Here is the input.
Amino acid sequence: MPKKNSSVSPQAGSKRSRAGGEPKRPARKAAARAGRGPGPGPGPGPGRKASHKPSHKPGAKAEAVAHSPEAGASPPADIVSLIHLGCARNLIDSELILGRMAEQGLAVSGDAGAAGTVVLNTCSFIGPAREESYANIRALVERKRRGDLERVVVAGCLVQRYKRQLAQDFPDVDLFAEISDGCELARRIKQMADGKKIDSYLASPGLREAARDGARMLATPGSYAYLRISHGCDHACSFCAIPSIRGPHRSKRPAALVEEARELIDAGVKELVLVAEDSTAWGRDLGLELPALVETLAELPGDHRLRVMYAYPNRFPWDLTRLLREHPRVIPYLDIPVQHIASPMLRAMGRAGSGDQVRKLLDRLREEVPGLTLRTTLLFGFPGETEADADQAAAFVRQYKLGRLGAFTYSPEEGTSGFALPNDVPAEVAVARRERALAARDEVLAASQGALVGTEVEVLIDEVHGTSKAPYAVGRTAMDAPEVDLIARVRGLLAAVGERRRVRVESLDPEFNLICVPLASEGSARPPSPGKPEAPRR
Here is the structure.
């Protein structure tokens, strides 16, 4: 599911949407996070400048970039910034590009206004994502024409999908780059900064190998990071262009993922969020299954926990429920996008199984993992959808109490089997159907979040703000994934990013986020306690 208007910054912004229709990330202008672990708080935030020395470990320390351009003069081209659009998997690509640029000796700034070169890592999942990418390209080109910017680089999914056509549409862009590991992209950016002439189009070297990712400059807070376990997708959903962009499914090998996870844990990450186009397909091309990987990563030394995102309903690896239920480092949470519940729609979308099979899957998950938090997504307005289909979906949200829900409307995608289907649903009708499902979701949230008022919960601190006299923190319970679900705002809490704290829920904000206060014993910052973590149960 798309994440709208998402640009990389040293850490996630302080305002996040509730578990919403199309989850929104605050705009992030990219540099890697500066510093992590115990301390006064996160590194430089959006709009504050940071440069980064090459590092082979995530979380490289930052130094300030000092540049005050004269009126009419653009900053030097060797100060670079990256604007990220798209999903968590694309965010990892952005972090890899940042790491490669730093290794080339380029200064990476979190302030696009202080950079002479701006890299835009694009998204092309659905129509609104493409329009956002195009709008950002136009804005950067306009800055270049005004003399505020030396170089514009466009990379990622939009280029991978439309290739050299983009170069014809935007001749003022200095470099287009298809999806890659970022090494050659960073070299060409460095060559441009040094005044050398380059080929302005960088084609992908071929299907990306499912190898260990290189050093990343993490753009998330010190509390969590994404770990990509595979590339591509073998499903043929009629609404989705991702297989044509990212290719077929390829699993990373366990040894490579253990190395990546160890780096993240050693850097202080407390929550590893496992992501892929289809996470539950991991390992099948290697003769393995996902639960073996999850257990291996959970058993690594450290004070970390795992969260599984992007599970697919078909061929579910049922031994995973044992880990979700019993392992203290596996969060009892599962993101499993079902897209619809009406069987005719599931068939038209090319999804495996029927509505009844989806219900049986969710029933078994909840039976085998008491207290499991489920997150899903629904798609409305697919050709042929009826009012009865949409009503069935809204009833499904209520029946299964799906408070962590994303919903979006269908976007016809060239190259997909759904593109030329008849019986289009008018856009305004699709939006109304989506809003009915979100209203049902809000009813669920009002009850489930309201039941937490007056109780104590554990939160993982993602952000700290304010002063020592008037501090507040932003965190999440185990029921909430970063950036797409709900948050907990804790007034009066002195804490460090990455700490887990017990807090009391006092009330809810209008979007059902928790408003909390620290317990008497939790009011001041303290270093994280060593040892095996307490199980992430509510």
The CA atoms of residues 62 and 448 lie 41 Å apart. The mean pLDDT is 85. The radius of gyration is 23 Å.
